[in-house]
Amino acid sequence: TAKRWAMILFSILGAALIGGGIILLLAHNWEELTRPMRAVISVTPLALAAGAGAGLLWTQRPGTAWREGVGTFQTLAIGVAIALIAQTYHLGGRFDEFMLTWSLLALPVAYLLGATVPALLYLVGITVWTGAAAFYEAERLVYFPLLGLALPYLWLTSRANRYHPRPVWFAWGLAVTVCIGTGLAASRVCGQLEAWPMLFGGLFALLFLVGARWWGEASASWQRPLQNVGALGAVGLTLVLSFGDAWSKPSWGYYWGPSAMRGVVWELAVGAIFPVAAIALWVRSWTRRAWSEVMIGAVPALAVIGWVSAVSDATFIGAALFNLYLFTLGIGTLVIGLRQRRLGVVNAGMVVLAAVILCRFFDSDLGFLLKGIAFIIVGAGFLGTNWVLWRQKEAARS
Questions:
Q1: What's the rounded Cα separation, in Å, for the pair 294 and 336?
Q2: How many Å apart are CA 89 and CA 249, to the nearest integer?
Q3: Is the Cβ–Cβ distance between 324 and 332 less than 8 Å?
Q4: How far is Cα 53 from Cα 45, in angstroms, rounded to an integer?
């Protein structure tokens, strides 16, 4: 209910405000305090939060608002205690080390209290750590084992009801952060080897296909986190890959020593997991005749063909393939929406067709007159299709 969710949000906000207020109060006279006093003050919020969490576990209080509020406060208190103790005793250390330590200590809070906000903060923390550790190439791939530590939380919270807000919101955070973290972890493969079409094509398709199997019967759009992120990412990626300039030849001319070459091999091996897994699920989608999955799942296979062609100096093949794919995707989505009389699906197909048509017009040397006519035709198509479907729905109701 709305009242219940308001209580949860206010408890999370209250915990965050209390933590911020404590930090501001301490900062006012911090320099005048002795080191022992600073140490005691630094760990006091953490001790209070740990005591509150232990009380929840002892009484087995099931309230989501209590668990989320205490979990948020305890997670923030862990970070504050680490930072203040390190500053008080001049322990030094790098920012990436601080983020990794904070994240690993906060993850058990999510599991013990069953709180989603600490789990989301963990996902954000390991993503920030991966970006901060970008200069330490051997460490970046640790992002994926760290990500694996959080996946059991999704399974635990979704056992009773996978459409409950707790697993759904965690899946939203997972889908968004994994897209960012993957790019940071495999930055060399994305940059020097120009393998990012295969990497992200496989990732977006895998998100969509897994989401379609796990949340395929969701009644609302917000309950389809992996499908939404995967579909939007796949369509956005294909629009970029429909331009010929996106297909740069991989830079094999870099000099890499033995250790650097091992890192490249590892990044390629990890990056290959996404397209391989996505293509395996895509093949099963053909046997199940799940046409929406077939259309989105084709992206990694086309990306592999385009990348291999780019290695052979045939960069135009990838752009041609994805232009054809976009037209097929738009028309297929439009047909499915018209058959099912679903206005949202029809509009999605129209958006894809409009996007590819407009991209090709802006990519060409046509004058403003023809481009203006194209805008008018596309807009008229939107209005006409929506008007026809609206009339059909009104006739069905009457």
A1: 13
A2: 51
A3: no
A4: 12
Return the pLDDT at 372: 65
Amino acid (one-letter) located at 214: W
Report the distance separating Cα 182 and Cα 15, nearest Å: 31
DSSP reduced 3-state for 192: coil
Report d(CA 313, CA 307) in Å as an integer.
10
Q: Which H, E and C letters describe 213-273, residue by residue?
A: HHCCCCCCHHHCHHHHHHHHHHHHHHHHHCCHHHCCCCCCCCCCCHHHHHHHHHHHHHHHH
How far apart (Å, rounded) are the C-alpha atoms in residues 172 and 35? Answer: 42
What is each CA distance from 383 to 226, 346, 388, in whole angstroms?
30, 11, 9
The whole-number pLDDT of residue 46 equals: 76
- For residue 138, what pLDDT is reported? 66
Which alpha helices (DSSP H) does the chain contain, by range?
2-28, 35-59, 64-88, 95-113, 116-132, 137-140, 143-158, 165-185, 187-191, 196-214, 225-241, 258-288, 291-297, 299-311, 315-340, 343-362, 368-397
Asked if 39 contacts 88 with a C-beta cutoff of 8 angstroms, the reply is yes
What's the pTM value of the predicted model, to 2 decimals? 0.80
Instruction: Give the C-alpha separation, 162 to 168, whole Å.
Output: 7
Confidence (pLDDT) at 230: 93
pLDDT at 310: 79
Residues of the chain with pLDDT under 70: 1-35, 37-38, 41-42, 60-63, 90, 92, 134-138, 188-193, 249-264, 343, 360-398
241: Cβ contacts below 8 Å, ≥ 6 apart: 197, 247, 303, 306, 318, 319, 322
Sequence-distant (6+) residues with CB within 8 A of 380 are none
Number of alpha carbons in the 13 Å side-chain half-sphere of residue 133 = 23
DSSP of 54-96, one letter per residue?
HHHHHHT---HHHHHHHHHHHHHHHHHHHHHHHHHTT----HH
Q: Which residues contact 304 (CB under 8 A, 6 or more apart)?
A: 198, 275
Provide the terminal-to-terminal Cα distance of the chain, rounded to the nearest Å: 33
